[in-house]
Write a structure and sequence with these properties.
Number of strands: 3
Number of helices: 4
Strand content: 5-15%
Largest sheet: 3 strands, parallel
Radius of gyration: 16 Å
Order of helices and strands: HEHEHHE
Length: 153
């Protein structure tokens, strides 16, 4: 568990450099980013990809990302939901006793991960939040599941 959480922290810290190096060396890798330069991930990987999308935009990555693929991502800090979303983001409360990812499991993950709650490297809705000029984004959420804490995040 500790190793996984350390890898998540390392992923956010070093991924911008890796993405820049990938972009700079695309031809050597046999890739053509002009045809598509997409990053993505599931769950924590979806959060990391969302954060990296913001960083790539802000740092004017060249060539730019053309897409994000966010699969069941944690996109905001459930303890600091922006006021304008409080009535919509209720899945954490509705699923506090969910059989798969309930409040106890979320608390356990967060107690190990210990993100800075208002850091853009964790909470992409931390103020001030700007989600303009991002690449096309595919967002997959388990709408069909009533027992998914992340479905409305």
């Amino acid at each position: 568990m500790g190793t996984l959480l350390l890898l998540l922290i390392i992923a956010v810290t070093f991924s911008p450099t890796n993405i820049s190096q990938t972009a700079a060396n695309a031809q050597k890798l046999g890739a053509d980013p002009s045809k598509g330069f997409i990053i993505g991930g599931t769950s924590a990987g979806g959060n990391i990809s969302a954060v990296l999308g913001l960083l790539a935009r802000d740092e004017k990555l060249s060539p730019p990302l053309t897409g994000l693929c966010l699969l069941i991502p944690a996109l905001l800090d459930f303890e600091n939901i922006p006021e304008e979303y409080k009535d919509e983001v209720v899945s954490y409360k509705q699923n506090k006793n969910a059989p798969v990812l309930g409040q106890a499991e979320i608390d356990m993950f967060m107690s190990h991960y210990k993100p800075e709650r208002n850091s853009k490297l964790w909470n992409i809705f931390a103020p001030p939040s700007d989600h303009s000029n991002l690449p096309a984004t595919y967002l997959q959420v388990p709408y069909f599941s009533s027992h998914e804490s992340l479905r409305l995040s």
